[in-house]
Write a structure and sequence with these properties.
The complex is a heterodimer of chains A (119) and B (812). Chain A is built from five helices and no strands. Chain A has 119 residues and is mainly alpha-helical. Chain B has a domain of 132 residues: Penicillin amidase (Acylase) alpha subunit, N-terminal domain (Orthogonal Bundle), CATH 1.10.1400. The interface between A and B is large, with 43 and 40 residues.
Chain lengths: 119, 812
């Protein structure tokens, strides 16, 4: 549950921050979300990673489909990805995801260590 | 808190952000670049088309609307001229900002500042500055800011560009800025001047004076003039033969010591020149009177040949205010319509090809370059130190000496060590104060021949052939520019620069520039020499003869001409040069000496229809054979005398072979035998065979596959996916003059009927954004030799379904 919650929060806040601030605001957002929501470090990483990965993948896919793959195709050629728009979207999302993941890890590890509750 | 995981993950995060926020070599800052909210994805606009926009602007004077049609051509309607030019600047920036900046960076010698620390860039920048590009632009700026009308026009245009630049955010920057990692800087009137200077360099910056000078030990002046034949026998001049010219208003006098100090002086300085304009920058234009057309109205045609690039050098638009109603193509980087038509007239330009650039050998007093010898005394130079910023490296300071002749381009500090404090200064008409923009401003408003003449007569550089046709039925052409009046031979070589005796003594009076004005027949220009030998001035230039012959031959035989006939002529692939050259080749080739392969190629040439169509294999065979012949004829002499100038014009060679099969260059001087023209023509084909066989084996014998015409993006091979191959035929000596990267950059046909019927197309698209469907949407139409009907819109048509979006400017 927490994974889903923090993932969604990271994606939403990441999107909002991206409207106003520099691209690396995704790191701050992931960091803060992980700081606020208690999670295991590994889960925090996953939620930060997936939050930004999904955000960037969705945004890129949406933009790309409206553009009819025109630019992504050319860019994927320039960056030696064989003209594959999908590959370029995956690379985009992966880069964002890594930044989000590690930032979330840092945020989560700043929380006081707590016992893992068992239900 | 878990300290170790915190430190590790924080370091990784910061390291990642840092690494992804930094440009690595030619790789952009990846994080920024890939971010869907800031990076290149933001440039991937929706293909559904444009949306209406409301744009606030505080200095707006009146109503201003821009209607963008289905080809993204803006039709600007304004109550005030200033608002219209504001809109033109805004639109140029909106669709072509990167191009405008790159061109003006190049003009100003600021390439290294953005592209980096590479000797090629630095030498380019230094040569630009040293040859006075900035100095010329400063002079032009003085001229156009001292005229209140043009000052207002340029200020409005500049305000438009800046209004758009200021509206940009990180995410809306054109994609090239994101790739290269820099941001646009404010536009200025100086940048307009720089842009125009770059055009002057492109079109009036070609000469071989320094190469000619190096040829002196091996070639006499007579030899040189024979190789640079001034009036080819086959010339069809722009001004019809038989026209009587006025006696000259100025008679330049050759210095008494010219033989010893100039023509025969052999010790010369050798320098390296870095960037020379393409010598085949040419163009076609012609006008036919109503007597020759089916409609009875004159027709004007123009296709300027320039480098074909993405984005195109042209941006098509209409500008309408109470004072002007004009349609045509403009240069992003400068206001006005450059080639086009209005309610009353149409005009078009081709390059004059005249040499307006001379070099002088300067004698500095010492290494400080502070003084130079002039008229028997040491005269002060004006030293100016330029700072050349270099990306990723400390700036370079370059001190340029200015003399009465002009800037010193080459001296011991640049290009090559020149001994004994000698140096080379440049005199170029592009340095002089002039206001070229005013010519186009007036042409845009011209109603008749008198207005046209008034518009062009102050025009200085680059010299152009201005073709004109009016609704009143008259047609005209003027070769206009500021051209030095030279004594015979002046400026063919580097000239002595220790006194005033070799300076230009004046300019050809404007009214003596070659011209014709009539109401019957036709007029044409295609970069040929403008006049026959009776013109009373020595006017060297880099002339191109064959296209003029082709056009004149076609037009003289045509009657009841229609627009479709003109389309066919503009895209005509017939080679009048090959027609003459094939006769000579076939006359002299010894087919018994040829292999089976050789005979096969020879038979292809024999059976050729002389059309340089895209899939013609014979065009490749012919061209390879003729290129090989040029090497066989000239190569030996060029090598022996270490000549660096290009081979003579192909027309010169052709006429020589026609007239005198034993002319002195035929013999290969590096062999003991005495070769005849038969031997050489045959040898040329034999030498071409291996190359032809290789092409054939690789499936590249077809003309378009062999020449591989390509439209590159301005960033060239670094962004190949932004380029397009164009499967077209033609050649520089054919009316449809497409070479490998160069050709008809805009084709326009205007019939001055009521209403005006106009057609046009350029190989590109209105939007410079590679993500846009308007980036290259005209290319296929252009390549197929097809045209768009140009919509000369009236404002009450603003509900027309062709309009896809409207930009409305409101006072804020």
């Amino acid at each position: 549950m927490r994974l889903i919650l923090s993932l969604l929060l990271t994606a939403t806040l990441g999107f909002l921050a991206g409207l106003r601030f520099e691209w690396w605001s995704i790191a701050l957002v992931s960091f803060l979300v992980a700081l606020l929501i208690p999670q295991k470090i590994s889960v925090a990483f996953l939620s930060g990673f997936l939050g930004i990965f999904i955000l960037w993948a969705v945004l890129a896919t949406w933009i790309d489909s409206k553009n009819g793959n025109v630019l992504s195709f050319k860019m994927a050629e320039i960056f030696k990805l064989g003209g594959s728009s999908i590959l370029l979207i995956l690379v985009t999302a992966l880069i964002g995801g890594l930044v989000g993941g590690f930032a979330a890890m840092a945020g989560s590890s700043l929380r006081p260590a707590q016992k893992v509750r068992r239900y | 808190m878990r300290i170790i995981p915190f430190i590790i993950s924080t370091i990784i995060t910061i390291g990642l952000v840092f690494a992804l926020n930094k440009k690595w070599g030619s790789i952009p800052a990846i994080g920024m670049f890939l971010s869907p909210q800031q990076g290149f994805w933001q440039n991937a606009q929706s293909i559904d088309g444009n949306k209406n926009e409301n744009i606030p602007y505080k200095n707006l004077k009146g109503k201003l609307s821009v209607y963008l049609d289905e080809r993204l051509i803006p039709h600007v309607f304004a109550e005030f001229d200033e608002d219209a030019y504001f809109a033109q600047g805004y639109l140029h920036a909106k669709y072509r900002l990167f191009q405008m900046e790159l061109q003006t960076f190049a003009a100003a010698g600021r390439i290294s500042e953005h592209l980096g620390n590479d000797p090629r860039f630095i030498n380019f920048d230094r040569e630009q500055r040293r040859s006075g590009m900035v100095y010329g632009a400063e002079n032009a700026l003085k001229a156009f800011e001292s005229d209140p009308v043009s000052k207002k026009l340029y200020d409005a245009y500049t305000a438009g560009v800046n209004e758009y630049i200021n509206s940009l955010t990180e995410s809306s920057l054109p994609v090239e800025y994101k790739l290269l990692g820099f941001k646009p800087e404010p536009w200025s009137n100086m940048k307009i001047a720089l842009f125009l200077k770059q055009m002057s360099k492109t079109l009036a910056g070609y000469d071989n004076d320094l190469e000619n000078t190096l040829s002196k030990p091996g070639l006499s002046f007579d030899d040189l003039m024979q190789l640079n034949k001034q009036v080819p026998d086959s010339l069809v001049p722009i001004i019809p033969r038989g026209t009587v010219f006025d006696s000259p208003g100025i008679t330049p006098v050759k210095p008494l010591n010219a033989d010893s100090l100039y023509f025969e002086k052999k010790d010369t300085a050798k320098v390296i020149q870095y960037s020379k304009p393409n010598p085949i920058n040419g163009s076609n234009n012609w006008v036919v009177s109503g007597q020759k057309t089916r409609s009875g109205a004159p027709i004007l045609c123009n296709d300027p040949h320039l480098e074909l690039t993405f984005p195109s050098v042209w941006y098509e638009m209409q500008i309408t205010t109470p004072n002007v109603n004009v349609y045509g193509v403009s240069f992003p980087g400068s206001p006005n319509i450059i080639v086009g038509f209005n309610d009353n007239i149409a005009w078009g330009v081709t390059n004059a090809q005249r040499d307006v650039k001379d070099y002088y050998e300067i004698q500095f007093k010492d290494e400080t370059r502070k003084e130079y010898m002039y008229n028997g005394e040491w005269k002060q130079t004006e030293l100016r130190t330029d700072t050349i910023k270099v990306k990723g490296a400390p700036p370079i300071y370059d001190t340029i000496a200015f003399t009465v002749f002009g800037p010193v381009v080459y001296d011991r500090t640049f290009s090559k060590e020149l001994s004994n404090n000698k140096a080379i200064a440049l005199r170029w008409t592009g340095h002089d104060q002039s206001n070229e923009g005013m010519t186009f401003y007036k042409l845009n408003r011209a109603k008749n021949y008198d207005d046209y003449l008034d518009a062009i007569k102050t025009y200085t550089c680059p010299g152009q052939n201005f073709a004109f046709a009016s609704k009143q039925g008259d047609i005209a052409i003027w070769q206009q520019g500021k051209f030095p009046a030279r004594w015979y031979g002046q400026g063919m070589y580097l000239m002595p620069g220790i006194d005033s005796s070799y300076q230009w003594q004046g300019f050809i009076p404007q009214n003596e520039n070659p011209h014709a004005h009539m109401d019957s027949g036709f007029l044409e220009s295609a970069n040929q020499r403008p006049v026959d030998s009776t013109y009373p001035y020595f006017i060297p230039g880099n002339y191109i003869t064959p296209r003029g012959i082709s056009i004149a031959r076609n037009l003289s035989s045509m009657q009841a001409i229609t627009v479709d006939d003109m389309k066919a002529l503009q895209t005509n692939y017939y080679s009048v040069f090959a027609e003459g050259a094939r006769n000579v080749l076939l006359k002299y080739v010894n087919d018994r000496a040829l292999s089976t392969e050789g005979k096969k190629y020879l038979n292809m040439v024999r059976g050729w229809d002389l059309y340089t169509t895209p899939n013609s294999m014979t065009t490749t065979v012919f061209q390879t054979w003729f290129d090989s012949l040029e090497v066989c004829i000239w190569g030996d002499e060029w090598k022996k005398n270490s000549l660096e100038m290009p081979y003579p014009a192909e027309q010169t060679l052709l006429e020589w072979m026609n007239k005198d099969s034993a002319f002195k260059y035929v013999d290969n001087i590096s062999t003991p035998e005495k070769e005849t023209l038969n031997d050489i023509v045959t040898l040329a084909l034999q030498k071409a065979i291996p190359e032809l066989m290789e092409l054939q084996a690789g499936g590249k014998l077809e003309w378009t596959k062999h020449k591989d015409p390509t439209i590159y993006h301005l960033l060239k091979t670094s962004v190949m996916p932004f380029a397009r191959k164009i499967p077209v035929g033609g050649w520089s000596n054919v009316i449809n003059a497409v070479t490998t990267t160069h050709g008809p950059s805009w084709r326009m046909i205007v019939q001055l009927s009521e209403p005006i019927e106009a057609y046009g197309v350029y190989p590109g698209g209105q939007d410079g954004n590679p993500a846009s469907k308007f980036y290259d949407n005209f290319v296929d139409t252009w390549a197929a030799g097809k045209y768009y009907r140009l919509w000369f819109m009236k404002e009450n048509e603003n509900k027309d379904k062709r309009i896809i979006s409207t930009l409305t400017f409101t006072k804020s």
